[in-house]
Amino acid sequence: MARLVSSLPQVDETTPLAREVAADARRRLSLQGRPLPRPARTRVLTVANQKGGVGKTTTTVNLAAALAQAGARVLVLDADPQGNASTALGVEHHAEVAGLYDVLVDGVPLEDVLQECPDVPGLACVPATIDLAGAEIELVSMVARETRLRSAVAGYLARRASAGEAPPDYVFVDCPPSLGLLTLNAFVCAEEVLIPIQCEYYALEGVSQLLKNISMITQHLNPVLHVSSILLTMFDGRTRLAAQVADEVRTHFPREVLTTTVPRSVRVSEAPSYGQTVMTYDPGSSGALSYLAAAQELAERPVRPAEQDLTTSGSRR
Ligand code: ADP
Ligand code: MG
User: Is 264 in the pocket of ligand 1 (CB under 6 A)?
Assistant: First the structure.
């Protein structure tokens, strides 16, 4: 017996891996089976960062799935012509499928093009098809070109209300990595911006440009828009640089940055190739647990009331 015990691996929290495993276990115990509060009214969040590859899509689909698994009704609008969110949510988005293009350019109602996500009850997605890339140009000459998505969402909510159907709790818009008319539409239809930041050297440079753009939109097109949350993604706790960047972001945005960081994890990057989010692909993985913890923070933090002083944006306090 003594030999057996001594042959077991040491429970030693001094190595990074052991610490990570222990932290995961604690997080799992504290979150499992815990219902998340649902918002009093629909929260529309645009997930944006002008840099590509920082985790916008990954964050959108996994937060959306985590919230839906915790009982919320969630709608994802895929506004990136690459359609990565549609892929990860397992919804069809080949060229013949109707999607966000038809909503923006032809005024097709959202309810006619949304698809239920096959793996997660309560989660639906309006897919992006390849023709969405063309919408960027087609919209230029259209009336109300910046407000078409807002009208589509407002119409959808109004029709559900008059039919006595419950509204979605969350609408997430996954943005392309550029500031074109698609991103502009996403900013105009939302109240909250969620910025995923990858902890690397140039992380904050892109963010200051993004904040300038958001403040321009606040002044001219959508006074209620504000940065409500920042999520540090692909965090590698073993590098000093990641920790330094994380500290810097937390110093700049003490209120907005979520306590949870999402570690770099192979399971997270594998999930989309199975048409899944990591929340169903490997729910016990560190990536899934982190997104669950982030979803919980998002759901439990106070939402800024619409009538609050709109001249102070989330980032300038
Ligand atoms: P964006 O939408 O900002 O372009 P993505 O969400 O598509 O970024 O992420 C870029 C790449 O990084 C993708 O291949 C994705 O699978 C991978 N990735 C994102 N988050 C993680 C993570 N936490 N761990 C490992 N890989 C990740
Ligand atoms: Mg993306």
Answer: yes
